[in-house]
Structure prediction request, 182 residues.
Amino acid sequence: MKLVEDTDNKILDTKKVSDKEAEEAFKTILTWMGEDPSREGLLETPKRVVKAFKEYFGGYTEDANKILEKTFGDVEGYDDMVVEKNISVSSHCEHHMAPIVGTAHVAYIPNERVVGLSKLARVVEVFSKRLQTQERLTMQVAQALMTSLDAKGVAVTIDAAHQLWQWEALKKKMQQQLQIIS
Ligand SMILES: [Zn+2]
Prediction:
């Protein structure tokens, strides 16, 4: 299964950027936006944004295979499909860093090894907490299950919307309504 290039498997040996440097960068962005980063309400904002980004993008330091390591072995004869539906997805698109929000449904047919259902949600979370495209996110979850569990089959679907698209759609709709009114 190799539908989309899996860039995250290449461990990037980039220069480590400190929290302080990241905060300075957000200060620059605030100024660029036309804000005054030294006004009271914004003084702590760069620090808070860095903290939030660590939460949004914590998936870069986590390994999905590790999560799937602990399996219930010996499920002899059990080859029913395991399904976990409606897993919340909260990610960010790699093109605009805009939030992507939705749900994932994950299913697999085990081959001797089964994991706890909560682990499926954790795997979705690890890959969600990276910059993503919907296609790659789907592929990475499926691939992790295939390789780590040696599953007989995997199905992953993600229903998600990019908030920028939703905003564009809403704007278009509002414009149409305004045209009708005027
Ligand atoms: Zn985007």
About this structure: The chain has two domains: 14-56, 71-182. Residues 163-181 form the longest helix (19 residues). Residues 71-182 form a domain with the GTP Cyclohydrolase I, domain 2 fold (CATH 3.30.1130.10).
